[in-house]
Amino acid sequence: MRELLVTTFLSLDGVMQAPGGPDEDEEGGFAHGGWSVHSWDDTMGQIMGDAMSAPFDLLLGRRTYDIFAAYWPTAPDESGGKPLNDATKYVVSRGRPTLDWGPAVLVGGDAGEAIAELKRGDGPELQVHGSGNLIQTLLRHGLVDRFRLWTFPVVIGSGKRLFADGTIPAGLRLVDSTVSTTGVVIGTYEPAGELVTGSF
Hints:
The chain is an alpha/beta fold. The chain has helices at residues 42-51, 62-69, 81-86, 111-120, 132-140; strands at residues 4-11, 56-61, 89-92, 104-107, 125-129, 146-152, 172-179, 185-191. It has 5 helices and 8 strands. An 8-stranded mixed sheet has the order 4-3-2-5-1-6-8-7. The longest helix is centred in the N-terminal third of the chain and has 10 residues, at 42-51. The N and C termini lie far apart (41 Å).
């Protein structure tokens, strides 16, 4: 059984759209691309390096695959490109895209069923980066084993959110946390069953 880890950069108000650059994702007129860049420090680099030091495969939505494919094949090994370039990329798409950045496998049809089957097989951890639409599918089907949420000390106000309207209520358990020198809170969470309510 393969574990599925979702890694996402978030603003304090839950926006995950275009953290890496102005042209990354302008859908909906989003004008704040690149909001995570100035918060990067050595602690964050170390955590990201550790996450990519063990074997993994990528599970990506089509848009994120295209963004990664435009950069990482030409990135030098010392920038962290080698693990991403070597990983098998499972790309979820309703279309028939040309997947030139390989090794790559198209995941078509019913995405929930296909990913559940992929998890039942043998292989390394499946890492999801970005891929907001895909994450909504994973949440609906209960396919996420861990979340690594990087929460940045910024408020954006509008944009695509990780836990958007329609997210199924659920509990999470914090299993690890680190705070960068720039105030980014990196928390690792596991599903903890149904949302439990009460009264004071």
